[in-house]
């Protein structure tokens, strides 16, 4: 084997080390990922459904008056929140025992849900029977017949005024009472990812605050989404109101004198009382700008003791300043 060259131990070690690095470089790191669900895109901002909030405000205003005859200590009912969420998430927030009114929107072929906070129910019962405005112990307790009767009376008032406000603002069918459900899970009839608009009302009774939830499935109002996005003015003519507001917007109007050139030396020599002679006659037209845009040609003059410009013609193009 004479004449053959052998690797030294140092060269062998270096070769082994490089092979290890090459193998490590070929190993691709694990890529973290998150499963994509198209349901995440199925959210419509309820703030764009203008008539929903209009309807809720009318509903609250009319229902509060009648409910004060039923609950003497009732202070206020106010709109707390409007948002969209999955029905599965909404169901998890409903306390037990549950009082859920099922409402039929017959013209739309769908349902809506009116949910009473359990603590609010027991507070109303306490106040009606002369007790304090605070809920009593409710854990593991079902509603009695008397409590259910009070719940039904409270719901009847809410639903009556809700239906009236719906017909006044939305004008699409009636909202009718269909029954009371005590199991929140039965609200999930199609998919756990079904999107609902949840309107939260806050009911205040002598400092105690409870909630009423009005849930509207998006599929129920799908046929009238465009109607809900359109606001109606009191005059019934949105265009006239916009034009009226537009006409009161202040704008800057200025008459532009002809441009002239001067040397720096001449400008520095100017003093109070000096006269600058323009290269045009006073009777020649000047450009009149509106908010920086040339729109008219006019002639400078006086009106009483004030300087003025008389509009001679409307420009059909945008000239250069000084033309």
Walk me through what this model shows.
It is built from nine helices and ten strands. By secondary structure, the protein is of the alpha+beta class. The longest helix has 25 residues, at 145-169. The protein is flat and about 100 Å long. The protein is 32% helix and 26% strand. Strands 1-5-6-3-2-4 form a six-stranded antiparallel sheet. The protein has a four-stranded antiparallel sheet with strand order 7-8-9-10, with no helix packed on it. Mean pLDDT is 77; it is low at 38-44 and 319-323. The chain has helices at residues 9-26, 50-70, 87-92, 118-128, 145-169, 218-221, 225-228, 238-247, 264-268, and strands at residues 74-86, 99-105, 110-116, 175-181, 195-205, 208-217, 253-256, 285-290, 293-303, 306-314.
Major sheet characteristics: 6 strands, antiparallel
Give the class-level CATH name of the largest domain: Alpha Beta
The figure for the number of domains is 2
The fraction of residues assigned to DSSP E strands is 25-35%
Tell me the structural class.
alpha+beta
Mean pLDDT reading = 77
Helical region count?
9
Low-confidence stretches: 38-44, 319-323
Order of adjacent strands in the largest pleated sheet: 1-5-6-3-2-4
The shape, in one word, is flat
Approximately how much helix is present in the residues? 25-40%
Order of helices and strands: HHEHEEHHEEEHHHEHEEE
CATH homologous superfamily caption of the largest domain: CheC-like
CATH architecture of the largest domain: 3-Layer(aba) Sandwich
Rg on CA atoms, Å: 38 Å
Kindly identify the CATH topology of the largest domain: Chemotaxis protein chec
- Rounded to the nearest angstrom, the distance between the terminal CA atoms is 101 Å
Number of strands: 10
């Amino acid at each position: 084997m004479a004449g053959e060259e052998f690797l030294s131990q140092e060269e062998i070690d270096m070769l082994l080390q490089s092979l290890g690095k090459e193998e490590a470089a070929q190993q691709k790191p694990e890529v973290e990922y998150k499963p994509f669900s198209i349901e995440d895109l199925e959210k419509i901002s309820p703030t764009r459904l203008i008539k929903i909030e209009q309807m809720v405000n009318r509903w609250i205003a009319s229902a509060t008056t009648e409910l004060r005859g039923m609950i003497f200590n009732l202070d206020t009912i106010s709109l707390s929140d409007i948002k969209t969420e999955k029905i599965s998430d909404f169901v998890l927030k409903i306390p037990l025992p549950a009082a859920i009114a099922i409402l039929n929107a017959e013209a739309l072929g769908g349902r809506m849900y009116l949910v009473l906070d359990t603590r609010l129910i027991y507070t109303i019962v306490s106040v009606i029977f002369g007790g304090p405005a605070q809920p009593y112990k409710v854990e593991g307790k079902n509603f009695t017949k008397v409590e259910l009767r009070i719940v039904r009376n409270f719901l009847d008032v809410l639903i009556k005024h809700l239906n009236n406000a719906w017909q006044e603002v939305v004008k699409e069918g009636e909202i009718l009472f269909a029954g009371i459900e005590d199991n929140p899970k039965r609200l999930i009839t199609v998919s756990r990812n079904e999107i609902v608009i949840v309107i939260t009302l806050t009911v205040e009774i002598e400092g105690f605050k409870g909630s009423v939830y009005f849930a509207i499935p998006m599929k129920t109002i799908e046929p009238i989404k465009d109607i809900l996005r359109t606001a109606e003015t009191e005059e019934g003519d949105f265009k006239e109101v916009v034009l009226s507001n537009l006409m009161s917007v202040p704008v800057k109007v200025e008459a532009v004198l002809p441009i002239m050139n001067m040397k720096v030396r001449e400008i520095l020599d100017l003093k109070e009382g000096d006269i600058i002679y323009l290269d045009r006659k006073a009777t020649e037209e000047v450009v009149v700008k509106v908010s920086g845009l040339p729109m008219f040609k006019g002639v400078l003059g006086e009106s009483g003791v004030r300087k003025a410009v008389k509009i001679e013609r409307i420009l059909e193009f945008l000239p250069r300043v000084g033309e």
